[in-house]
Amino acid sequence: MAENGIRELIAALKREVRNGTISAATEHHLRREFAAIGWGRDPSLHVAKLDDEVRRHETEARVLRELRDTAFGVAQAASAVAK
Fold first, then answer.
1. pLDDT tens digits, 17-49
2. What is the domain count for the chain?
3. N or C: which end of the chain has fewer CB within 10 A?
4. Is there a contact between 79 and 68 (Cβ–Cβ < 8 Å)?
């Protein structure tokens, strides 16, 4: 991902924040992480950082589901019906 690609990704993240699909905190965090790496650095560093963020959110979602199930005795299938 060249510097241009990162700028496009940040612009896309900002659009998703406006759409309500990504939190402003996540967008801000990624922008800071990419800046810390350096905009013109090896694209694989940015990809790895984005992958770390995805894994973090996946873990967070899994733990939240487990906590929900424990606290309320709600199965995951039941929450899909509520959507």
1. 999 999 999 999 999 999 999 988 888 999 999
2. 1
3. C
4. yes
